Amino acid sequence: LGSSYDGGGECAGFAYDDRNTEKIHFYLTENDSEGPLRRYTPSHSALKSKEDRSFRLLHDEGGTWEYLLWVPDDEGTNGADGASSNRAGGGGVETPLSTGKIAWLNNEEMGKVSAEEYFGNSRGIARHGKELYFVSEEARRLMVVDLHERTFRAYGTENMMMGAPDEITVLLSPIDGQPLLFVTDRILDGEGDGESGGGVTMFDPRDGTYNPIVRAEDNDDYVSALAFSPDGTRMYAAWVKGDDNDVENVVYSMKRKDGKSFGFV
After folding, report:
1. How far is CA 3 from CA 6, 30, 160, 249, in A?
2. Please, which residues have CB within 8 angstroms of residue 87's CB and are 6 or more apart in sequence?
3. What pLDDT digit, counting tens, does each position of 147-203 carry?
């Protein structure tokens, strides 16, 4: 699905919703200023297949493509200037910049219009339960979509992190099992202070609280992929170190000093 798109960018992120095995959805982002967020639903025959089902879900003909339509309420009425209540240690509480409704249409051009206006260059995407999460590098936004209610909340990321949001990894809280989002960011060309690079920030979609986890010291360094051990006590970060002319890729295994899960915040 979507290795590249005619006249646009490339697939930057992938998520799926298989809660209903009779109607599975796949979601793809596109790193282009007009790149729509796509939803693919496999054909009925692929869903019913018993042989090579995983392959057929993605490759059989007859599936349907739909595109995300963004219908905001009055822009800027909720946390108009990226309102943030900062806390000690660099954390804070972010309120939504905008809220509104969503729809899924089979009109790609309408999807491109929404992307260009509200979430161009969308990248990381993840789902947990009825919520879909994705980020826009261009708009510097973190989106929380309620797939049941067909509503959204859009949060500005300028107060949360130094660079542009990039990837999302979900870790469940060991306290109540609710999802926490670990969002990576990277400093784009021509930006930054030269003394700090990309990093990882924890964001709680329930109340907008956020806390920085780790940050690189060099402007060109950033985390390209993130994962956690099953108990959440180890964070595995794939760091890209250096500029385009001299790149080093290193995977780090990190632990908290107190040995607890990264889900304790």
Report:
1. 10, 10, 31, 23
2. 93
3. 999 999 999 999 999 899 999 999 999 999 999 999 999 988 767 665 578 899 999
> In 3D, which of 100, 101, 106 has the Cα closest to residue 38?
106
In the 8-state DSSP scheme, what is residue 89?
G
Q: Compute the distance between CA of residue 228 and CA of residue 240 in angstroms, rounded to an integer.
A: 18
Residue 114: half-sphere exposure toward Cβ, Cα within 13 Å? 23
Dist. CA 139–CA 214, nearest whole Å: 23
Of the candidates 106, 140, 136, the one whose C-alpha atom is nearest the C-alpha of residue 124 is: 136
Q: pTM score, two decimals?
A: 0.90
* CA dist 17 → 49, 114, 128, 137 (Å): 18, 22, 8, 23
Whether 174 contacts 131, CB under 8 Å: no
Q: Cβ(222)–Cβ(198) under 8 Å?
A: yes
Secondary structure (3-state) at 106: coil
> Would you state the structure tokens that stand for residue 257, as one six-digit string?
């000093």
73 SS3 class: coil
What is the CA angle 114-198-28, rounded to 5?
35
* Phi and psi angles of residue 3, each rounded to the nearest 5 degrees, phi first: -65, -35
Helix, coil or strand: residue 44: helix
- Please give the biggest Cα pair distance in the chain: 55
